[in-house]
Amino acid sequence: MLTASDGVKTSKKHECEWEEADSNYLNKGEEDEMEIYGYRESGVCKAVMWGCVLLTLGVLRLVFHWWPQYMLYMSHKRCSLAVADKVLVVDKYEKRFTSLFIKSVKILSTKNEGLEQGLDHAEPLRRLDPQELTRLKEKLPIKEFEIHLYNSAIREVTEVRTIWIKKLCYIWDDEKKSFLKVVGLDQGVTKNKLHEYHGYDYQEQYKRRIIYGKNEILVQIQSIAKLVVLEVLNPFYIFQVFTICVWLAENYIYYTFAIMIMSLFGVTSAALQTHQNQKNLHRTVHTTDIVTVKRGHDEYEDVPTTHLVPGDVIVIPTHGCIMHCDAALMVGNCIVNESMLTGESVPVTKTALPNENVLYNEAEDSNHTLFCGTRVLQTRYYGNEKVHAVVLRTGFLTSKGNLVRSILYPPPADFKFDQDSYKFIWILAFIALMGLIYTVITKSSRGLRPGDIILKALDIITIVIPPALPATMTIGKLYALGRLQKHQISCINSRVINVSGSLDCVCFDKTGTLTEDGLDMWGVVPVSEAQLKPPVRNIPEMPFTPLIYGMASCHSLTIINGTVSGDPLDVKMFESTGWIFEEPEIEESSKYDLLVPSTVRPPPSKDPNPEKPLEIGIIHQYQFSSKLQRMSVITRTLGSRDLTIYCKGSPEAIQSLSKPNTVPQNIVSTLQEYTEQGYRVIAVGYRILDEVDYVHVQKLRRSEVERDFEFIGLIVMENRLKPQTTGVISMLKGAQIKVVMVTGDNILTAVSVAKECGIVEGGETVVEVIAEEDNNSNPLQIWFTCGGSLSSKSVPATNGTMLDCELGAKVNAPYRIAISGKSWGVIREHAPDLIPKIAVKGAVFARMSSEQKQQLVQELQQLGYYVAMCGDGANDCGALKAAHAGISLSEAEASVASPFTSAVANISCVPRVIREGRAALVTSFGVFKFMILYSLMEFMSTIILYSIDSNLTDFEFLFIDVCLVVNFAFFFGRNHAYSGPLVAQAPLTSLLSPIPLVSLLLQVLVMSTFQFISFNVVQKYPWFEPFQYVGATYYISFENYSVFSVGQFQYIIMAFIFSQGAPYREPIYTNRIFFSSLCVMTCICVYITVSPAQWIIDFLQLRFPPKLDFPLVVLGLALGNFVISSILETFVVQYLMFKKLRYCNHDIKKSRRKYLAIAEEIDTDRDWPPISKPATVVACNQQSIVRGVDNHAFEGDSPKPVKYTTKL
User: Which residues form the P5B-type ATPase N-terminal domain (predicted)?
Assistant: First the structure.
């Protein structure tokens, strides 16, 4: 829908007035920077515009519907943003795509009348309960608004000018002289300030809702009737209306109704699909509930969640809830399922926000933040106190709202076939214009009536531009949809099917996509007297040592509905011990007052002393911190007065906190051994706390107890590949499709999985790119480190294939790049020129956030790749939506963002989508060429016969259009996708490239020649009588027969030669209905040509030759046409041009596929990548190694690690 409030997407830069004038900016300097221009309504201009609309009988208004910016230019004048009543927002993407948004500026005032307008914006007054309305207006007028703006600006104003762009509110700031984005309390507010919030009264809450709007993530659902109207207003359907009018004027009734039925089918199917997609998205993201808010110190009230605004204090219920806003936890603890954000159903414990005079930071304080869309499973209290949280963000400002915005406003996708199909219509329009001019001139010179000339001239336009084209292009994709559904793959956007046929790069998430969801316990490696002992696989049979005690107690598990729940790693680790976890069966509300809230004990059969059973109570927990890379618990054993702390985390972190004399000397090589095999490794340490009693435990700082550990062992876990993964990766790489892993997991585990599944092949070296920001003289440091085949005079090998890379080492073997999200972000910000090289050679992108996954997809697209993204989590949504083809393995949020969703949760769906996409793309090419050539040959037939003032009869047109063209086009796409191997060459994507243009041109020349031959040969026979013009609708003649009889075979020939088989579709004979139709229609055409019944002659209005000599010549011409056309298409076009000469003299520097030039540059530059070793190796790779397992990934900054000499 293109209206005054919608974006208009174009494929190249508009040369409009707004590009030449000075402009202001929204979000200046940010990734979502947009230009903004002010306009003010002009009464004179508006009157002139509507006068022009009337003079053009509404055609100008239709043009304004397609290009609404021109309506703004005609009715408004440019002005300063400070006085504008409308704004034009220009969103430029990659300097290739431009989206325009035209929005009205709304003024909200603290005066009663202005406020009521604002109230109506926040919640229509008519919907309010009379008592609520009275209660609200009792405190009017409002003195001023307090608004939190971008860059931590806080304004208190009495009047605001607002615009809403991409679901976000922008406020005019007189100080900055620009529109600034309204933000929540997540920017510029200190933590102790958040603790001072005690809740708003009704009027204060409503006042803020005027600015922030209702707290809902609302996706508009348009009515089917409206969608049908919008579809009909598409330029191509407007042309069909014109076509129908011309045909009705000529009494060409039958095919007119056929076109109307096909058009109705195309319009309704598109409208229904769009409506269903909107309903699905609305149903998935839009939820409402009742929430308890605090109204002061001791007053509480239940209100709809849509009423919440930043600054409200809400109560988290005991039984849990789904969060409808982003909120900072003020009091108590919550156990939350954050699968909506992370893609993993892992219960996470959230703790109260510290009361500190430090700015709130979402990244650092995520452990204290409840995010919108996540599910609170249960709460823990201090006595009977309520668990409070302060609302930080609402609506589309929330984390979930941002996710939905990425779905509603995805980056523009560039697909050559769609663009070229529209350009081709303009070529046909030019041909039609030439035909129209020719018709007017020739027929005028022969003295025909003006009315007849006009009808014949307009008829030429309807012949050259086939009105059935949209419907026939849709049918092929519908067949592909049906085949995908048989393989349990659903598609919510049929337009993407063709795009998936061009894919040459596939990005895979790891966990749940390439590998199984859960982790399995492999074993443990005990440490005794600073020596690593042999690994133990049967853990329940281990002797009772501090290591088994630590595995049983060092976790954040809880019991939810009678089931032990928590991080899968913690669950697997605890279950492997065979111990029993218990929580006292008492009121949840008193858990915080318990001295020992949870206990663990061995099963009675394993207890060494049944008379005095072993039982360990968990006194205190220090939650997992990604920054610290560890978690710890303080315990007490029943019958003992000593307190013991157990700590587990990354081996690096535990080692740095352990006594050096307890750390094994061979720890580094052992870690390398396990991590290179894809195992996830964590370490455990412990110490007995001396001189600490129960009272002091709650007051101890973490740094005071997490020190001087004894290093007691390693826990080794494995993440298995799904059975289908390796085969599918091999198949894709065999087709020369770039395969990339993009994951949130740590880099060495990711690299190991990449090697195991074949993303990184044997013999390939993995080069890790490490980037760090330094506040000293050198702001950026980048290292390229590797293991494998290196050449350097001073590179001694250690630990097998792992090498200590000195500066200047060069990679001789093929290599692939691995990079972490942290380094990706640093390089993208400070050294963006490196990103293309990293993207081209990259195979593993680890520790990537949802936003970074989307960035990677976009970078690959900018390099010319057609990118697919396959993932299963909500954190993949941005990348799934941005990719040319998103494939979700989940039925949850990811399926809404992704065009394809597989009910079978493995990657075997990826080659299936590519196969069907290639088949659909080749079908679309074939149908498009068939329909274009059909229209051109009908045009040639008409032009030839116009030379004698004749034409094809209405029923000849009907026979061609329905029995031949529509019949073949309808069954053309029934060929199944090719079942053989995926070939390296993807189908063509451009209709305007030399190969399809040469194909069409050769066929036009050949078929036109045969029509001319037939037209001239028939005139040589003695029985021939020239056509005599009688009337505008009388066409019976020998010339008519000669052109029609040859032409009918040509449509069969077109359908046959353009129905391509291997390597993208099964052979033509496997499409039984289509092949049978070709055979039957060939027989019918032979019958009509050689010996038709009299009723057929009368029906088609033929003048049949008195002898069979010419009909036999026609059959000979048809056979010759078939042979020549087949040779040209099969040998010249498909074999010589497509297979042999496609890339000859191909200048990769000018190619759309920029990655080819980058790859060539990298391959010829023997000095890149510059393998280096940092002056002080902070074990950058070791940092990755020891980030073995984490309860949300050991990510973020870490304590200063131990320095190693071995560099991975």
Answer: 30-173
Domain coordinates in residue numbering, the chain = 25-182, 224-285, 290-408, 466-488+912-978+990-1141, 489-518+720-788+813-903+1146-1180, 520-718
Using alpha carbons only, what angle is made at residue 80 by residues 77 and 81, rounded to the nearest 5 degrees?
110
CA distance 774 to 170: 35
Half-sphere exposure of 1079 (CA within 13 A, CB side): 8
What is d(CA 756, CA 1072) in angstroms, rounded to the nearest whole number? 43
Q: What is the pLDDT of residues 636-677, one digit of tens each?
A: 888 787 889 999 988 888 998 999 999 998 888 888 788 777
Cβ contacts of 347-355, under 8 Å, gap ≥ 24 = 347/377, 347/558, 347/560, 347/565, 347/566, 347/567, 348/567, 348/1191, 348/1192, 349/556, 349/558, 349/621, 349/623, 351/623, 353/191, 353/194, 353/195, 353/328, 353/329, 354/191, 355/191, 355/192, 355/195
The residues near 756 (Cβ < 8 Å, ≥ 6 apart) are 678, 721, 726
User: Distance between CA atoms of 972 and 478, rounded to whole angstroms?
Assistant: 12
**Over the stretch 1028-1065, which tens digit does the pLDDT of each residue have?**
877 767 888 999 999 999 999 999 999 999 998 889 99
CATH tag, 489-518+720-788+813-903+1146-1180: 3.40.50.1000
3-state secondary structure of 109: strand
Are 916 and 868 spatial neighbours (Cβ–Cβ below 8 Å)?
no
How does pLDDT run across 140-195, given as a tens digit for each residue? 555 666 777 877 677 777 778 888 888 888 988 888 888 888 888 888 888 888 88
> For residues 1090 and 1098, what is the distance between their CA atoms, to the nearest angstrom?
15
Query: If we measure between CA atoms, which residue out of 721, 714, 685 comes closest to residue 522?
Result: 714
Retrieve residue 1041's tokens. Answer: 């027969």
Architecture in CATH of 520-718: 3-Layer(aba) Sandwich (3.40)
- Topology of 290-408 in CATH? 2.70.150
Distance from CA of residue 192 to its chain's centroid? 39
Would you say 675 and 748 are in contact if contact means Cβ atoms under 8 Å apart?
Answer: yes
DSSP characters over 986-1032 = PPP--TTSHHHHHHHHHHHHHHHHHHHHHHHHGGGSTT--------T
- Catalytic annotation, pick one of 312, 509, 872, 949: 509
Question: Does pLDDT of 1179 surpass 50?
Answer: no
User: Any idea which fold 466-488+912-978+990-1141 has?
Assistant: Calcium-transporting ATPase, transmembrane domain (1.20.1110)
pTM: 0.72
Length of the chain: 1208
Distance CA 60, CA 337 (A): 54
CA torsion sign for 1023, 1029, 1031, 1034 is positive
Token pair 């996830």 in the structure block, residue: 680
| 409, 412, 873 from 850: Cα distances, Å | 16, 18, 10
| 968 in Cβ contact with 1074 (< 8 Å) | yes
According to the 3-state scheme, what is the secondary structure of 417-462?
Answer: HHHHHHHHHHHHHHHHHHHHHHHHHHHHHCCCCHHHHHHHHHHHHH
